[in-house]
Amino acid sequence: HQGNFMSNGVLPGTREESAKLKEVKAAHQFVKFRLANVDKQRNVARLVVRNGYAFTNLRDFDLRTAVLRNGHVISTQRRALPAVAPSDSVEVEVKLAKADLSGRTVRDGDEVMLNVYADRRAATDWSAKRHEEALMQFTLATRRGLPASAARPLEVVDVRKNGKVVISADRMKLVFDERSAKLHALLIDGKKVLGNGLDLDYTNFRFIENDRQSDANNGMDSVGTISAERKGETYVVTTHRTGKLSDLTMVYTLHAGNVLDVTTKFTPKRDGLRRLGIEVGLDSTLSRVNYWAYGPWENYNDRIDGVTVGRYSMTPSTSMERYMKPQSTGNREGLREVSFADATGRGILVRTEGKVSFAAVPFTEKDLADARHSWELKARPYTVLHFDAAYRGVGNASCGGVDTRKSYCVPNTPQQFTLRITPLK
To answer: Of 3, 27, 9, 7, which is closest to residue 304 (Cα–Cα)?
Structure first.
């Protein structure tokens, strides 16, 4: 075969649904939604539903809605749509049960979203009963940033020996390479959670065939700087590394109560980067992944119309699309929160502040690039965990000089995000 040219289409050869199919469906859906207004005192929304079909009336469709608080569905409704002729529209009132937009939502800084669906009421020759034909998600309230951590005394042990900097506080231990300033390991209760087989480092590489990027070298200098100091009730470790593509500054702030804030700052050096992100090895036993982000399908900044923000579960292997010819895969945009747990429920919880996407797969990007077929891949003994401040869209110049639209490219401006890591009980 010609690489992935004939096998990685919108419909794969194995005929299961794909992330590509979901995006195409959303781009071409004929039932259109618009949020006219929201009455926060009454907790109701006015929704405009437009019929984009040429020959189909909407009287055979149901309007289904769901209200989500912090990714959890808190109320649902289903009603029959009235007769709406092609090219016509109707305005309906949707009750936002349990949303409490002027009360709890404001007080707690919760995120509230409204999901809207158009379902065919009856089965057709090609679809089952209540087939979901169109969807859209609206943000009613945005979430607040990370809350302040408790200001309590923190005992820290800082040891520098044999080329390592080891910072210990309560149940957490951070191990840095003194020369490169890379995080070599994060241990919780003596178990290496991060750093297994892959130190934390900057990455720009991803593999999408015909993307015209082939160099997996991240361009980082081999020598970095590391400093540590007590700031009030916290202990702060700052590392800095320079590179040809981007500089990377990491600020690790330890708080009492086993709270670690990791602020990652990127300073890109040129246009055309594929990502501003970090990668690190994750203990492979932490394979139960629960996340709050766009899902459940793989998605990218130019492929999020077919997915919605919510709470989803996966494993590193099930997070991947089944590409015949392996490519970069498993990305989820808009990360709010993700946990990685073992069979007993122990692991880590990561909450975010700022724009972050993530992926957790059993292979490196180089593994995916080098394999000709998916069955040739051999899983690493660790999970490759990515967090990206910016990730270039997957639309590219495969069929000519169109290339990725500028709005989906990695900006040549400083970017940053914060990860708050705590142990899972």
So the answer is: 27
Alpha-carbon distances of 413 from 270, 353, 388, rounded to whole Å:
9, 18, 14
Cβ 221 vs Cβ 119: under 8 Å: no
Q: Tens digits of per-residue pLDDT, 171-211?
A: 999 999 999 999 999 999 999 999 989 999 999 999 987 77
Assess contact for 199 and 179: CB atoms under 8 A: no
Q: Report pLDDT for 5.
A: 63
Q: Hey, is 8 helix, strand or coil?
A: coil
Tokens at 126, concatenated: 């090609």
Amino acid present at 151: A
More confident residue, 253 or 323: 253
pLDDT digits (tens, 9 = 90+) for 246-288: 999 999 999 999 999 999 999 999 999 999 999 999 999 999 9
Rounded to a whole number, what is the largest CA-CA distance in the chain?
A: 76
Cβ pair 134, 29 in contact under 8 A = yes
Task: Give the lowest-confidence range in 15-29, 88-102, 391-405.
Answer: 391-405
- Closest listed residue to residue 319, CA positions, set 351, 277, 356, 361: 361
- Quote the tokens at residue 94: 């949707």
Query: Is the distance from CB of 404 to CB of 393 less than 8 angstroms?
Result: yes
- Which class for 43: exposed (0-12), middle (13-18), buried (19 or more C-beta within 10 A)? buried
- Helix, strand, or coil here: 147? coil
Interacting residues of 63 by C-beta distance below 8 A, sequence separation 6+: 49, 78, 79, 80, 81, 92, 116, 117, 118
What is the β-pairing status of strands 44-51 and 89-95?
antiparallel
> What is the H or E stretch that residue 354 is in?
none
The pLDDT score that the predictor gives to residue 6 is 61
- Give yes or no for a contact between 149 and 259, defined as CB atoms under 8 angstroms apart: yes
d(CA 242, CA 219): 9
Q: Which pLDDT tens digit goes with each residue over 24-39?
A: 999 999 999 999 999 9
N-to-C CA span, the chain: 49
Using CA atoms, how far apart are residues 210 and 121, in angstroms rounded to an integer?
Answer: 42
> How far apart are alpha carbons 415 and 393 in whole angstroms?
17
